[in-house]
Amino acid sequence: MKLERSDRGPLIAFMLPAITVMVVFFVIPVLYVVVVSFLKWNGISAPTFRALKNFALLFKDKAFARSVLNNVIWALVAGFIQVPLAMVMAIILSRKPKGWKFFRTVYFFPQVISGIALATLWRAIYRADTGLLNGLLTAVGRGDLAKDWLGTVSSAFPAVLIYWVFYVGYYMVIMMADITTIDTSYYEAATIDGASDFQQAIYITIPLIKKTSLLTCVTLASVMGLRQFEQVYMLTNGGPANTTSTIVLYMYKKMQDANYGMASASAVILIIVGVIFIVCIRKLFEGRSEQAQMIRKARRGVK
Amino acid sequence: MSETRLRARPHGWDLLLAVVRWILIIFFAVYTLFPLLWLIVSSLKTNFEFLAGSPFALPAVPQWQNYKNALTVAGLGRMLMNSVIVGLSATAVNVIIASMGAYCISRFRFNGRERIFTLFTAGILVPLNALMVPYFVIINKLGLYNTYGGMILLYCAIGIPMSTFLIRGLMDSIPMELEEAAYIDGCGFFGRFFHIILPLSRTGIVTAATFEFLTCWNEFVFANLIVSSEKLRTIQVGIRYFTNQFSTDYVSMYAAIVISIIPSILGYVLFQEQIIAGMTSGAVKG
Fold it and tell me: Tell me: the pLDDT tens digits for B194-243?
């Protein structure tokens, strides 16, 4: 609809609250962390400019390096293990096997439960004495593997990371919706040509969702991996020996120490790493799938 | 798949695939449900049963008073109330602001419209946790530290990009002709919004509201950051303190977690279709 002169006033009035929120809670805060990352500031006394010293201190700190590494691992595992698992389940459930609605509902549960509740639950599972995991290992006769999962340096980070990987519901639901928009005539034609379900998934479904929901999910999952805080805060608080720390947890601790400069500097690093991830994932998914584009075009033609 | 879809001719490994398929389906279901059931069973044990018995044993007598303890002794009732107050208020303000913004972006062509929309979509991807320092400062500067108002404002604000995105998605699907007809009949800016667009975008608004409420209900980081008073603690912050304060009373702690999860699951099951429809409409277009 064209904008009438008489609509201009109301339009501005309608747009204003949302724009104000975006400026005050998104634009300014991002600029703010960038500015504060160059300062030495404890939140009370006057801040002093210290150029890049915060960043220099960060790069010297082994705990920070470990946090960045953990986040990168987390983002990669989320994007390239968790999402492919979700894709497999999306392909399976979109064939509507018996009870698919029930399974879709169940898989989505972890998405609506708070991170704090889930982390507390998993802390109980990983407990050294009465934990469910050690109980299961003992029950199958491998009690020798039982240990204090979160308290041992070698197992703490894998334990914190792994339980999340099998919660695929969110990404699965997004990809399922995309798969159901695919024209069934492709599958019918493929079936007549004798293609198995497996071949149909590889040659029809995956290429067709690759640039849409698959790309979206890999991006979302990686960003989630970079944001991690509640999980580690509740499960280990970064320990043992900082092996499970993440950038946000590191930032939070610096904030608790009233070191706002370094907290902001780590936030800046987090944002930069996030942008790098988003750009790289886009690049990775671009090109190569010309076949899918052709099918997409053909599909539009049919409609 | 449509009902009429032809079945594939039997292939050598079709049977194997079918077996693998069901193993996967059941694995993921058990992986999600079993820990939750275990949590519920554990929450009905005595501390002695939990600490000394097998993790798989059922409680001799279900200890319902664990739930009573969580609600009364630990003050979970108050925290649930706080979460409801903050969640409902933030959601109401959030969807009002988002619907107004979405109406402008979806129905009008004006300068800077694309740029504004990009700002909203970028907002969805910003790692909000990285903005703890500025949020803490802003809420303090506004004099809203340790108030309901502070939480409501912050929760409402961080959900704006998502809500606008979801509601705009639905508004985009409303045919222009409908609005144009009303326009010719002399219906103004507000008339078209209230009488045509708003009623027709009901499902988008419900989706956004459900999403926003769930976000508020489950939010921990900022509630922990901008509130210190025990009286204002939301359920998530409460659970966090519960784990410190009552670190020896495991079973009541698990009861508290079960209580905090129930509304999320109920809400999800009730609004499942809206949540899934809205979430995917936005995400698939990506």
Answer: 998 999 998 889 889 988 998 899 999 999 999 999 899 999 998 888 77
Q: Which residues contact B169 (CB under 8 A, 6 or more apart)?
A: B204, B278, B281, B282, B285
Give start-end residues of each CATH 1.10.3720.10 domain in chain B.
68-285
Q: How many residues belong to chain B?
A: 286
Task: Please tell me which residue of chain B has the smallest CA distance to A21.
Answer: B157
- B68-285 fold: MetI-like fold (1.10.3720)
Do the Cβ atoms of A135 and B236 come within 8 Å? no
Torsion sign over Cα B225, B228, B232, B234: positive
CATH of the domain at A207: 1.10.3720.10
Q: Would you say A159 and A150 are in contact if contact means Cβ atoms under 8 Å apart?
A: yes
Residues of A in contact with B158 (CB under 8 A): 25
Q: For residue B221, what is the nearest residue in chain A, using CA coordinates?
A: A230
Q: pTM higher than 0.80, yes or no? A: yes
Q: What is the ipTM of this complex?
A: 0.86
| The predicted structure's pLDDT at residue A288 | 54
Peptide bond into B35 cis (omega under 30): no
Q: List residues bridging with A49 in a β-sheet.
A: A39
